[in-house]
Structures are given as structure tokens and as C-alpha cells.
Amino acid sequence: MSKPASKLREATLTLYRQQGKIHAKATSGRFNTLRWAMVWLTQAIFYGACWLEWAGNGSQRQAILFDIAHEKLYLFGLVLWPQDALLLAFVLIVAATALFLVTALAGRLFCGFACPQTVYTAIFTWIEARIEGDHLARRKLDQSPWSARKLALKASKHGLWALIASWTAISFVGYFTPIRELLPSIAALQTGPWEAFWLIFYALFTYVQAGLAREAVCQHMCPYSRFQGVMFDPATANVSYDARRGEPRRPAGGGGDCIDCGICVQVCPTGIDIRDGLQYQCINCGLCIDACDQVMDKINAPRGLIRFAAENALAGRAKMPQLRGRPRVWAYFALLLVFACLTVSTVNSRSLLLVDVLRDRGALWRESAEGRIENAYTLKLMNLDDTPRHYRISVHGLPGLLIVGDSEFAAEPGTIRPVSLTLSAPGNNAASGIQPIEFDIVALDEAATGVRERSSFALP
Length: 460
Known about the structure:
Largest sheet: 5 strands, antiparallel
CATH class of one domain: Mainly Beta
CATH superfamily of one domain: Immunoglobulins
Structural class: alpha+beta
Strand content: 15-25%
Distance between the termini: 106 Å
Helix content: 40-55%
Number of strands: 16
Radius of gyration: 32 Å
């Protein structure tokens, strides 16, 4: 290949990798299709789930709602309280462990296909391409002096970005304030201070991160890109260039399959050259695979010059990633299994009734006109269910111990019902001092819902 042509190609790669904002060339293929499928799936869930309603007890509410004011989390028919923080911790650990396991097996798949930064950047760049044109037209527009046309195109693009960012913020806040109440309050400019703050903050955050920062987030800001390498081993599958097959490149007089067209760099959303080896900026999106496969088809060469492959496979030591001799993969899998089991166990053993027993500290005991010894208590019945419940309270632990007055009480769903109780024991009881007792509280309409709480009874 002539030196001028070689210098031109090198200058083209430098243009894509170093100068200003990256305008990646559009490509098509199975990985691009999968990326857009994930965009549609994740955004259908995010934008749509806040509109779902759940009917129960003759009333309707938002199916997924983080009701911070009342300290509740509604997940369809499940109502979680601050007391369920352990369950939330288990869920977060399961999610983190699953991410680590996937990373150890197949690299940064989450970054390339499901990360919100990747998803919204894809949406914003799609809008940019529809308004400003392909990658070359966008770069030319950026480098051109300001004119009425450039101002109109930029204003249109940023206006649409702002609309999407604003609706994203509304959807986000709609998971904390019922969205059917939030929209009228926004229209009337009557949102609360915290709602207004998060609407503005999240809209600006989305707009800046996906519209302006874009690849800089993956290149310089994302902490995961810095430590994900410790989860890799020689059997981890990543987007990789097969140097044994591609080198020496054809333009340099070699017989390798790589023709040094540079299209793998042009389509990369982070502007790296995958032929330089594994780099922390690579998000494993697979777009360079799609682009390279198209080039291979044109030159009648086998696909897969760039493909998902492990270091062992590229070196000819294994055709497929192996699980044997990979302790970190088994460790992640074991942790995932353990915490998944703990999560299921916690959900199954979770009681929908919590009871707090408080003794009257003002007087340890008092004697009634009949000569019986009485103690006063306050029981706080917390109905964590989404259904009204009627409870029966019984007590045992001392001979002749009984409840003075009513022993059945009702509690509305998601409320704390304080109940004042007086217990009475015979005055001639052989025991004396502080004696242990137990309260049994059982739901009349749901026998499986019940708790036993320990307390004490004071005798002379």
C-alpha cells in the first residue's frame, strides 16, 4: 500500500478516536438489533410500569410506588415496610452478584446492552442522526461556523433531547409520587419542593449524561470500567480481535484477513480500536463485530475476525470458555445461589403482622377491688397486609391470668393500631416479683398470620 494512502487511513482513525465528540458510524447486524431490543424492553418497563394500577380491597392504587411519606413500598400485591430492609439488602446483593457473575463469564454485557447510560445515549444519538444526518454530516456540521441552518438543527436536536429528559424525570418521580397526581401538580406548578428538585435534577442529569457527556462517561467517569478487569480471567469471553487470523494486514503486504479499513473504529461508540487489545473503555456492545462481519462478507472471508472470544480461545488453547479451574466464577455462582435462597426464604417467612408490647412504667402493678393484681400494657399492632384484619389476643404464662375487657381488635391495612390492655392475675398467686408471660396475637380471618411476643407481669 502507498504511503499517502496509509497516512490517510491513519489520519481517519485519529479523527474518530481523538478529535472532539465521537460521531460513530451507524451499522446493522445481530448485536445492533439486540441493543435496540434492549432499549425498547428497558424503556417500555421504565416508562410504562409507573402507569400500572393494582386493584385490592375495593380500591385502586399505583402498582409500583415508593411511598416515602408513609414509609411503604408497593410492589403489586406486596407491601414492604422499613422493617423489610433486610429483604431489600438481599435483593441488591443478588443483583450485584449476578452482575459480577455475568462479567466473569462474558465481560461487560450489562454496559453494552442494559446500562442506562448506554440506553439513553443510543436514544439521543438516534435523534441526532435523524436531525443532523449521518456521522460524516454531523462531524461536518460541528466543525462548520455558526449559521441559521446550524442553529435551527442544533436547537431542534437539543429541544427533543430536553423533552425526552423531562419525561424521563417525570416517570422517575412518578414512582415516588403517584404519577396520576404528579402530572396535574406539574401542570398547575404546585409540586412540592422535593418533587421539584428531583424533576429538575434528574432531567438535567439525563440530558447532560446522555446528550453531552456520552462516551466520556464510559471513558473517564464510570467506576465499573475501572474495577471490572479484576473479574476477568483468560476464559472470560469479550469482544476481541483475532490477531492470529488478521495479521499481518493486507494493505501492509500481508496475507491476514484484516484489510485495515478502520470501520471497527468508526462504529465504536467509545472510539477505541479493538485491534489494540482489551481496553477498559470497551463496553462489549458488539457493534464492531457487526461492522467487521459485513466487511468479511464483501471480501468473501469467514466471519468472526472480531467476535466474542476468550483469551484462551484466541491463543488456541480452548474453543469455548471453560468453567473448570475458574474459582471466581464458582464463588460468584455460590454467592448468588445462597443470597437468592435467603431472599426467597425471607419472603416466605415474612410476617404480615408486627407487634410491639409496652408495659406501663408508671405503676408496676395495682390491686383491684376483688383482690386481683392488674398490670397495664399497650400493644401496637402493625398490619403489614394490604387487607383489613381482625385479631384475637390471648395471654398465658401465669395460672389464672386473663385479659380484662375486649380481646379482639381490628386494624386497617398498612396501619399501626395501638391497643390498651389490662391483665389480671389472682392475688394469692404462689409466684412473686417479675414473671415472664407471652401474648399470642392471631388474625381471625387468616390463621397463618400470627405472632407471639414475650413480656413480663409484675406481682407483689
